[in-house]
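Async update (no meeting this week)

Hi team, since we skipped the sync, here's where things stand on the single-chain job. The sequence we agreed to prioritize is pasted below, unchanged from the tracker. I ran it this morning and attached the output directly underneath so nobody has to dig for it. Comments welcome in thread, and please keep replies under the output.
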Amino acid sequence: MASKTLGASKFKLIFKHILPNTLGAIVVTSMFTVPSAIFFEAFLSFIGIGVPAPQHR
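Output:
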């Protein structure tokens, strides 16, 4: 609120105050989401409905 009152632009508010405070949560969330997606894709392939294996010529 003080930065906005002193005339800081929305761009500066986002990159100076909001982004650094949310960066930790974004990193932690992505660290749990990416492996989960990989395991899910491996599970689908294991039960036979995932991405088919490439055909070698």
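Quick observations from my side:
The CA atoms of residues 5 and 13 lie 11 Å apart.
The chain has a mean pLDDT of 85.
Reply here if anything looks off.
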